Amino acid sequence: MNYQFLVETFFVALSGVPIALLVTVVALLVALPLGFLLALTRINKIPIIHHLAKIYVSFVRGTPIIIQIFIIYSSIPLILKMIFEKYHIAYDIYKINPIWYAFIVFAFSTTAILIEVFRSALSTIEKGQLEAAHAVGLTTFQAYRRIIIPQALVVAMPNICTATVNLIKATSLGYAMSLPEITLKAKVAANVGYNYVEAYLDIFIVYLILCSTVEYLFKRYEKHLSKYKMANA
Amino acid sequence: MEKYFDASYIWNAIPLLLPFLKVTFLVAGSSIVLGTFFGLLLAAAKLSSKKVLQKIANLYTTVMRCTPSIVLLFLVYYGVPALAENVGLNLHAIDTAFFVVVTFTLQFAAIMSEVIRSSYLAINKGQYEAAVSVGLTPFQAYRRIIFPQALVIALPNFGNGMIALLQEGALAYTIGLIDIVGKANLIIASNINAHALEIYIALAIVYWVLSIVIEKFFAMLEKFFGKGKRTLETT
What we know:
The complex is a heterodimer. By secondary structure, chain A is mostly helical. Helix content of chain A is 79%, strand content 0%. Chain A is flat and about 70 Å long. The model of chain A has no long low-confidence stretch (mean pLDDT 85). Chain B is mostly helical. In chain B, 76% of the residues lie in helices and 0% in strands. At the A-B interface, helix 3, helix 4, helix 7 and helix 9 of A face helix 3, helix 4, helix 7 and helix 9 of B.
């Protein structure tokens, strides 16, 4: 084992963390509101949309994320190429920054997971609470913002934590899209001297630290949220 | 103009891919059997009264939960032969399937330890005490009373774990395993990368159908094994 390489590559892997976190944060920012809205369509049985949401969830849960990456990575250039040719736009689709593919893929897969997270969380809140809120004059928006969402969030937070950790781990598959995050950076460094064991140990340690930290932060936030917890009878 | 998307490639690809499901199932099946056994040991450690064992088992689960599958896969693939060399063994001729099974066994064990632990804790302690008080031996109490009830609780999570394993297993192609994903990549390579999208869609359809089938199967099992279960009527 090459210990000098081990130490040096650790910092190379560490330099990929900002990209991994950026992808994670952007994907969550897209997925959280979308997941919530689509969960509402499923609970309230909005015609057409709740069927589509159900199929969408089934597809994402039923296929490996690496295959979702392949499909999106293959189809977006095709779609853009057709659009650009039709409107005679001279843009080179192969120069698109891979980070956009990452945003799309991970937002796409995380939204489906969060639909189910929010659906189950919202199902734990009694209908009577919404009715009571309406009875005292709150608008539906106010009722959700003040009454329903804080309580549902208590239930949803552990699952959101799991989804976030899984999302961070999934960014390791960004190498398939040439995304320069933790895994790809260390792999490239390892290619020079075939120091793969050291490289993957570094990657492993970085992910361990990263995911443990995120879990810790979520636990702190859950404690903060517990003041909204429903009293048990 | 060249046709960008040819749907016929999807239907042509599926018969080419299906024979390689055998490899996928073999690898996944081995990992599930070995992982369940190892998971049982971990669960026993977590539930034991020895603090050291508890800490080790919990640490293992935490580490596995924080490690991406692809990273674990390569650590095993490169790390195990390197370790073996230190004791004079040459593992470089071993089939890649071995490393895949080792990787996913380790990962599935972490999942199973939590499944087993939670289903065991869900059974009220009083049931064991009642069983022993009417003269059953501890082994009989576990086999006749605890296990059948814990099984019903464990089944949905076991099914979820199995589906997750099958999907994570798709990464095995990265170390050269020719399973259904590996075959798809070979087909794409022989097409000089044309029609990759159609092949990947075919792959997605196969996995999607598989997941739904497993889901339905475990729902059936749950209903069957839960037939003796009586739950309290609430409101």
